[in-house]
């Protein structure tokens, strides 16, 4: 089997990659807990993707595989998601009955981020559901983790879907704990030390 081609997403690719990520997360447990209705999900998820991982485009760390069949948005050390846009989006689109649990849930996210060393953060990775199971996620991971290793930096992510944990473990990530609040699904923070 040929090794999937990996390209760097440019600003001109932004909408295409955001639409791909939106499609990839349509059955994600955490995301669909936040936006269970299809209409709300389809309206909110592209905005969420842009706010959560969109700064990857400015830093040359948005990646896509095989002509936009899978994509990953990585944030380098010191680059954060657009928290103001995320908070505004959540206030406008989240159901009031989960708001208290969601505040607690998202509050736990920052507790697990590495604070003692520079790191690469992977907020979003996903494949078009028509192209899953073909090694595209692994190819994207391998490509980005090679850079982490070259720079001697740790990699960090939160797995919002338990089915993806084995993929991350195969690439050297280890579970750090669990994030859960009230009615929320479990999210698993994971870290990977650089390999020499």
Task: For the structure shown, list the relevant keywords.
single chain; 196 residues; Aminopeptidase; 41% helix
Overview of this protein structure:
There is one protein chain. The protein has seven helices and seven strands, in the order βαααββααβαβαββ. The longest helix is centred in the first third of the chain and has 16 residues, at 38-53. The relative contact order is 0.17. Strand 4 (119-127), helix 6 (136-151) and strand 5 (154-159) form a beta-alpha-beta unit. 41% of the residues lie in helices and 18% in strands. The chain is an alpha+beta fold. The model has no long low-confidence stretch (mean pLDDT 95). Strands 1-2-3-4-5-7-6 form a seven-stranded mixed β-sheet. The chain is globular.
What fraction of the residues are assigned to beta strands by DSSP? Answer: 15-25%
Q: Name the poorly predicted regions.
A: none
In which range does the helix fraction lie?
40-55%
| Radius of gyration over C-alpha positions, nearest whole angstrom | 16 Å
Q: Can you tell me the CATH superfamily?
A: Gcn5-related N-acetyltransferase (GNAT)
> How many E strands?
7
Mean pLDDT: 95
Order of helices and strands: EHHHEEHHEHEHEE
Major sheet: order of its strands? 1-2-3-4-5-7-6
The number of domains: 1
Number of helices: 7
Apparent shape = globular
- Name given to the CATH architecture: 3-Layer(aba) Sandwich
Cα(first) to Cα(last) distance is: 27 Å
- Class computed from helices, strands and strand pairing: alpha+beta
> Major sheet, described briefly?
7 strands, mixed
At CATH level 3, the topology is Aminopeptidase
